[in-house]
Amino acid sequence: MENSDIVRSFKTRFIRHRTHQHPARVSYWRQLKDSTPSDECIGLVTTHLWLSALLNSPKPNTLYFDPPLFEQLLDQYQQNPMEMTADQVPLLFNRHEFWPHMESTAHILALARASQVCSPGGPSWILLDLTVRDGSLKSVEVTIPPSCTFDNDAFGDLISFFIGALNQIFPGPKLAGASSRVQQRTMTLVLPEPFTEEATLLVLMAYTLGKFLDQAIPGVDVKAMRQSLCYYYNQALRCSDVDFIFPWAGLTDTEGTLMTENNSDKVGRRRFMLTSNREPSPMEMFPRQRSYSTTLATAGPSEPFFLELAQLHSTHPEGILLETTGRSVTDLKKAILLGEFPSLDKNFPGSRLQVPEALSLQEYIDLVHDSGGPESAASLKFFLLAKHEEKRIKLDWLKDAIYLQPEQLHAGFDLDSLTLSSFEAPQLLKPGVYYAIPDPRFSLTTRNELDINLDGEKIGMHTCPNFCIMTFSGNNQFRLLVFFPRNRQREGNLWRNTAELSEMKDWYETFLTALRIYSNQAPSAWQHAVEKTLEALPNTFEMASEQRNKGGHSSGHCIEPIIMNAVFKIMRRIIDTTPGLAKYRGYFFHLCGMNLKLGTMNIHGRMDNNPMEYAFSLFNFVDWYSANPHDIVADIGWTANPNRSMMPDDLQNSTLLFRVGPLTELLRAAYTKPQIDQYCSSYVVGGLRSTPSAKVRKGCGVVKAQAYPKDMILTYRHQNQVSAWGANRVMKTEPRDILDRLLAAKAIVCYPTGTISAFKSTLAKGWSTIINRQSQLPIPARKSPEVVLLTSVLAYWLKSLIKRPDEMGYSTEMAKRLQLIQNAERFGIPCLRSASLDDDGLRMNYRVEAERFRILSLSGLTVEAPVLPNNIPFQAIEQPDPLQSPPPSPPQTPPVNQLWPQSSQDFLETLINVHLPRTLWSHFTRDRLQNSPTALRLRKKPLQKRQWPEIVEPLNTLRELENKFSDSFDRLFPANWSITQPKGDLVAYERDFLHRIREHVNTKPAKARSTYSSELRRRIRTMLMNTWDYLPNVHSHRIWAYDPGPAGQRIFRICPKSR
Predict the structure, then answer these.
(1) Which CATH architecture has domain 3-285?
(2) Does the bond joining 342 to the residue before it have cis omega, within 30 degrees of 0?
(3) How many CA atoms lie within 13 A of 238 on its CB side?
(4) Residue 881 above 80 pLDDT?
(5) Residue 292 Ramachandran class (φ > 0 left, ψ -120 to 50 alpha, else beta)
């Protein structure tokens, strides 16, 4: 029989069936309007659409089983599995006759209820897609309802019955034998709450229609799909004559493309008196969220992990971390700003600044320049009191601000950090670098909001002494830390969380002991590897200390994972059974990876749309799938960037900022009162940090949230720290849903970057000019409390231009007592009260009682931080008085230890190893420098020729000028540390670098400065000869001189040191 004859026969049988005749179709219309379609109604609509697609297709590639047929087929098979025939399934309508005429790659589709597979009481619709190639079943894809407790064993039985029934009714060989291996892929729907039966059904129907027409479905709007389906039913099935015409009226456009996210104007205007049509709730002031499907699990080693992660109730017990077991989708939606809101308050902070006389950013800049510029004498009180012509200025950040449309922005998720905590060491799969002498820079010294369960006691992870023992991945992005919770000690109001040398020594000696024990237990094939490892490691902790490099850090040793896994187990037994090591019992591990965002972005379609599995496969040096998912925590970042192709010319360079008020209101549903991080001291725009309410944290495992602008890269981020379950679900959320909500709440504003830059530059120049004028005051006046206090205020404001506000206790006290915060909120710009400032504008008024401010105790101190580890508090050293009285007798040359104290050596090392390379590279052509983390790190180190390709972009080569090192040295370190009439690059070099040396020399007694300068110059040259390979060829007022080469190439001239 020809295919067309089979279609006509099936069509006739289908229409004549009693459940498909006109009286039944009229009753189905009422069911559709009431949003309560029966299985027969769904069977009629979907089978009718499938038949319409068949009539439009020259050769079918899909065979569809509707809900009533699927149930009847399984019932018949379970009653008579060995002798079942197609004639025993009346609803089949002989559709099995299509099978021999299908394409070589065919799909068997089934839309069915499966209450035994899904959560009881919830939506139970599933969509099956069986891929058959050349008559053999290759894969099964199942799409399940959202937040469904999926019973994989019950589904295995269901699919086995279905395939068995198909083997009985299909002519020809069996689709799959009892021992056939069939790959399974589990998909889940992502829908906005509430998850109703009708919404699930409508979305699954949209995906079913997409498979009929072989069209991808990016997303589904439930309301639009309901309207389209009713329109089509009214046109094709409600009347007495059934219409099978394609394209489908209302469901597709004129080209036959499915419309699942919106309706055409004609369809949208039609009113069917649907029960679902009602007055919108306050929640619906926001754009409707998208509905779509995403991968839940695919066949392979990760399948059990992600199937368990999809369950609403975990089968794993609580691990070492507390409050990470919750799996409430409702609470998680609230935590990522997609929850329900009863209202949205519009009376945000800053609304009182929106008055006609308030200035926009550009108007403020223009007013400053019209008044003589930021460096003029007339603008002195302008920047301190925010007054112009004796009237207070108000700055409105939202005046002339731009609210972008959704299509003008990109949005996406990324994995910023990934951590695994456990009592037992993670199962290593790849070699890592082990450190005999831990680097204190890699320790955890700040609060990470994670709490651990230590014998029933809740303690903060950051309160435990810890150090890093291993690193993994490039640039040491992952670190394995060991914590000793029983060694916790309070130091004042803080906890000691940096390990002592005795603790590091005990750990390393235990490690060596365990390694020696394993050398006697290792299989013969591993004996040589263990002995070689023992040979490479230092024999004692003291020996390891002597092998550190000049920076005081250990280089580490790369060790096989098999060896490390065995040694860690032996170490546990040693510590648990040795009385002298009892204080270390209960130690635990914390594996943390940071700065992962650029390598873990959620790219659509990658790793089968499973971003968490992609991250695990990328960082596969440990077995993530064997870990307790409650102990895996990730920082998920949501980022928005301008879509330059959709931006006007004047916004090609633009800056996005958060509005604090709307963002705080959106967070209010799930978080405690946030801590605001002002942007340029503004309380209208900026960032914030918050922790979830106790209910939300327990419900979904969210640990904290942070939102911050990053105007250096035209970006702003919203970041959540969540458990593995939450991270998996958040990364599968449509990022544009969050973007739509933020834009609807007007929580994002846009400014031209030039305006933001000019505003910051204007404030910085104005405040810096005041400090420069203070420096011209007499010494006694400069040291007066009133002048120093004003300088501290200006420094506080200057820092706010580039970082979040200073939260140190002394700064907070100053801001509170001088009402800096209240003034910024009231006027929109940092300023002082008029009564606080003295008449000359260079000092505070005596009535302020400046001497009572504790921040003054930090003035006149030099913090020598570069020579100390990160974990040691700074030691403040008082500066010597630069104007000491001359001695009564001629001075004698001081001894070497007096002429060159330790503070001078520290200054020299910081100058040559940090400030000099940073200054030199700052004058290199920006677009020819690499921006990788390695390049940024190397630009802060001595110049080495071998590092040139890692710092500079290709097509930039070197030309060495022999015997020119001394000439370049003399240009960079001139007599008296000053360049006569500097030009070009040397202007900034004179101001930023040589000025630093002059200030240091001026701290010495006047009579000793000449001798000290000579010694300093000699030591600078010696250090350069010892640690540097070359200096740039300073020529024609350019620090990095070069010769042009072919095809845009530049040949930079350098001066190598003499060999």
Answers:
(1) 3-Layer(aba) Sandwich (3.40)
(2) no
(3) 13
(4) no
(5) beta
Say if residues 171 and 273 touch (Cβ distance below 8 Å): no
Say how far apart CA 431 and CA 454 lie, in whole Å: 30
Amino acid at 709: P
Note the pLDDT tens digit of each residue in 40-75: 999 999 999 999 998 887 677 899 999 999 999 999
CB-CB neighbours of 439 under 10 Å: 20
- Cα distances from 736 to residues 386, 408, 750, 805, in angstroms, run 40, 12, 18, 31
Q: How far apart are CA 135 and CA 175, in angstroms?
A: 6
pLDDT on residue 271? 75
Could you tell me the two tokens for 429?
Answer: 């799969």
CA torsion 72-78-84-88 (nearest 10°) is -30
CB distance 169 to 144 below 8 Å: no
Tokens of 622: 């440990």
HSE-up of residue 724 (Cα within 13 Å, Cβ side): 27
CA gap 622, 419 in Å, rounded = 11
What residue spans of 645-733 are helical by DSSP H? 660-667, 694-700, 724-731
Pick the residue with more confidence: 500 or 289? Answer: 500
Closest to 294 in 3D by CA, of 740, 636, 728: 728
CB 1059 within 8 A of CB 963: no
**How confident is residue 877, by pLDDT bands cut at 50, 70 and 90?**
very low
H-type alpha helices, 67-183: 67-79, 152-169
| Burial classification of residue 396, based on how many CB atoms lie within 10 Å of its CB (0-12 exposed, 13-18 middle, 19 or more buried) | buried
Instruction: Average the pLDDT over 523-547 and give the result.
Output: 91
Side-chain-side CA neighbours of 603 within 13 Å: the count stands at 9
% of the chain surpassing 90 pLDDT? 38
Within 484-616, strands assigned E span: 490-491, 494-495, 557-559, 588-593
**From CA 953, how far away is CA 973, in angstroms rounded?**
28
Q: Which of 372-381, 466-475, 499-508 has the lowest mean pLDDT?
A: 372-381
Distance in angstroms (rounded) separating the CA atoms of residues 869 and 873: 9
- 727, exposed or middle or buried, with CB in 10 Å at 0-12, 13-18, 19+? buried
Position of tokens 């100390």? 868
Parse the chain into domains and list their residue ranges: 3-285, 361-401+756-860, 424-585, 896-1056
* Dihedral pair phi/psi, residue 888, rounded to 5°: -70, -25
CA 437 to chain centre: 31
User: Residues of 636-663 as b/e, b for ≥16 C-beta within 10 angstroms?
Assistant: bbbbbbbeeeebeeebeebbbbbbbbbb
Please give the structure tokens belonging to residue 768.
Answer: 């810096």
What are the residues whose beta carbons fall under 8 Å from the beta carbon of 915, sequence distance 6 or more? 993, 996
- Closest C-alpha among 321, 592, 628 to residue 450: 321
Q: Give mean pLDDT, residues 685-694.
A: 90
How large is the average pLDDT for residues 772-784?
88
**Mean pLDDT (whole number) for 326-350:** 77
In the DSSP assignment, the letter for residue 437 is S
Task: Indicate whether this model's pTM tops 0.85.
Answer: no
DSSP 350-389: TGGG-STTPBPHHHHHHHHHHTT-TTSGGGHHHHHH-EET
**Which residue would you say has higher pLDDT here, 104 or 292?**
104
Residue 108's contacts (CB-CB under 8 Å, 6 or more residues apart) are 62, 63, 65, 128, 129, 130, 132, 166
The larger pLDDT score, comparing residue 177 to residue 504, is at: 504
Cis check: omega of the bond before 974, within 30 degrees of 0 = no
End-to-end C-alpha distance for the chain, whole angstroms? 92
Characterize the bridge pairing of strands 183-190 and 136-144.
parallel
State both tokens at 357.
């006389």
Report the 10 Å Cβ neighbour count for 808: 12
523: three-class secondary structure by DSSP: coil
365 has a pLDDT exceeding 80: yes
Placement of tokens 């005749």 in the chain: 21
